[in-house]
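Why does this matter for the project? Reviewers at the last site visit asked to see concrete outputs rather than summary tables. In response, this paragraph embeds two records directly. Each consists of the residue sequence and, immediately after it, the corresponding structure tokens. Nothing has been edited or filtered.
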Amino acid sequence: MTTKLENLESAVRSVLGSREFELTSALGELTLVVGHDDYRSVMTALRDNPDTRFEELIDLCGVDYSTYGNDTWPGRRFAAVTHLLSISHNWRLRVRVFAPDDDMPLLPSVSDIWSSANWYEREAFDLFGILFDGHNDLRRILTDYGFIGHPFRKDFPVSGYVEMRYDAEQKRVVYQPVTIDPRENTPRIIREENYAK
């Protein structure tokens, strides 16, 4: 007797055919890693083929793999990770695609395949700097329009580059370079004999 996960794996392998991909199973979930060039055709096939029928894109997020765990990541730095849901078959699939260029991460947009990808791709652009080719409205969604950089990149400083404050004389919000000096906080050690005296 085959399990639902085995059925999903078999269906995905059948739908993708001779395309180059990597399919792994861990913790009861399947992860499909596809190449940049095949990304759109794979996503369209996963949606349209009755064997998989992923009607919904439930999440898309950017990931910065510049460091991973306690080590450095051996592959490409930026990826988009998508979670698909098939209501017809009641199964889920994670799809990962890496941007080929770390300096200017560019991936094809899937917002015309699933309209829900629109805001998710804008978020990945805003926070990670991942560009989505073919997206019809790629602009910042969470940070201010004048914001410099992408705050979820692992090389972005924790304190940021600028701070804003209200200037009473100018009667407007002004931006200025960060004035907070980075410091190391050492926690106080609580000793039992002096505790709560």
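We now turn to the second protein, recorded in exactly the same manner.
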Amino acid sequence: MNNYLFKIISIISLSVLLSACATSPQPQPRAFATAEAVIEQAEKIGAGEYAPTELTHARERLAQAREAAEASGRSKSPNANFLIEQAEINAELAIARSQLAKTRDRVNQKRKNNAKLLQTLQQTYTGEFE
């Protein structure tokens, strides 16, 4: 699991680094739609419960991207495309963390069920089951 998380963080870091080098004056309308779709997907799988910080960051970056796109005519406005990419990356991280947390929950539930089953078997077959 740690290796998986390390890969995700590495990909995110590389994406952020590469996107910092690219500049584009106006984001495409579909870029906003894509980021919104990823955030919506994160919400649907329970990121609000399992990865609230990442989901909040994704929403904030998308809001900042909208502001940057509106202010793009002004000098020194932030790069909206960069903020959109950050929103998508944060939402994807929220999805990954949510999936990981759900998997851990299922594993813990299976462990509890196995412990109950073992206890039942030991009570049923006292002395025979070790």
